[in-house]
């Protein structure tokens, strides 16, 4: 049996299991007319998983309120297949970022606002991640009935590249995080980029990425393998303004934290910024 900690919607709840461990459970209508403290039987639960990181729990809870169950379970299945079929280790925040990405892409396709930010050729260096991305598009078509553009293979692959590694229980200095986020927002504003109704989804995604990035840096877990130089050179050539802004953000964080950052972050910042230009 599971005891409800928080009802997120009719299909999803945060619960505690028999061992008093917190988990997220999913199932069609499992929380209908239920409230905090009520019990849910295991036989009605379709999916269950745990998030040890408090920040991941909070962000995932926020996302789940607005994202339909089938998108959540599809994202979960993509990640679990990557772990099982490709023996690909992931940090748990990918459950947040990938779910968010898939639903946002779906919304943009439906509204006709999908934007294709071309990515450099990744075949030589990231064949495993691209295979995961291709499998993901098949699952999305099967589960959601939506044919995502081929460009999404690379975008999904990037999520796995960024989240490669193992999760750890982390501690963060909230004051430092808030200060760095304000500094980045100030840098974006100085470059003419502000949060608007039109760009708020992409702007918020950058803030989520920044939040997880700061967690990794402050807990000395910034061990992602670097992108190939060709990848960075191509982005620098194709998106010079986004690269300049992304590089300034990279150097700003490095300077204020006094830590050497993973070169990958310069690329991720560039991609996020390009979507805002």
Automatic annotation (TrEMBL):
Keyword Repeat among record annotations: yes
Lineage: superkingdom: Bacteria
InterPro entries noted in UniProt: BglG_antiterminators, CAT_RNA-bd_dom, CAT_RNA-bd_dom_sf, PRD, PRD_sf
Gene Ontology MF: a single term: RNA binding
Chain ranges of the PRD domain: 66-167, 168-277
Transmembrane intervals: none
Pfam families: CAT_RBD, PRD
GO-annotated biological processes: regulation of DNA-templated transcription
Keywords annotated in UniProt: Repeat
Protein name according to UniProt: PRD domain-containing protein
């Amino acid at each position: 049996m599971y005891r409800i900690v928080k009802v997120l919607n009719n299909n999803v709840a945060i619960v505690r299991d028999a061992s008093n461990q917190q988990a997220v459970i999913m199932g069609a209508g499992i929380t209908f007319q239920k409230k905090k403290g009520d019990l849910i039987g295991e036989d009605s639960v379709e999916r269950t998983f745990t998030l040890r990181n408090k920040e991941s729990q909070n962000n995932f809870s926020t996302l789940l309120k607005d994202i339909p169950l089938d998108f959540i379970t599809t994202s979960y299945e993509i990640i679990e297949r990557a772990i099982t079929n490709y023996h690909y280790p992931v940090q748990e925040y990918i459950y947040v970022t990938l779910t968010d990405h898939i639903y946002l892409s779906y919304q943009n396709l439906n509204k006709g606002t999908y934007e294709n930010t071309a990515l450099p050729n990744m075949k030589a260096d990231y064949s495993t991640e691209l295979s995961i991305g291709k499998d993901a598009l098949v699952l999305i078509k099967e589960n959601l009935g939506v044919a995502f553009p081929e460009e999404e293979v690379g975008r999904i692959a990037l999520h796995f590249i960024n989240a490669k590694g193992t999760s750890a229980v982390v501690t963060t200095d909230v004051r430092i995080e808030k200060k760095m986020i304000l500094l980045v927002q100030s840098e974006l504003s100085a470059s003419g980029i502000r949060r608007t109704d039109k760009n708020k989804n992409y702007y918020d995604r950058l803030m989520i990425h920044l939040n997880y990035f700061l967690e990794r840096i402050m807990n000395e877990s910034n061990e992602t393998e670097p992108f190939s130089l060709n990848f960075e050179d191509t982005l620098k050539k194709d998106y010079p303004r986004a690269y300049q802004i992304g590089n300034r953000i990279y150097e700003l964080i490095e300077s204020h934290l006094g830590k050497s950052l993973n070169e990958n972050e310069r690329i991720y910042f560039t991609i996020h910024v390009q979507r805002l230009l």
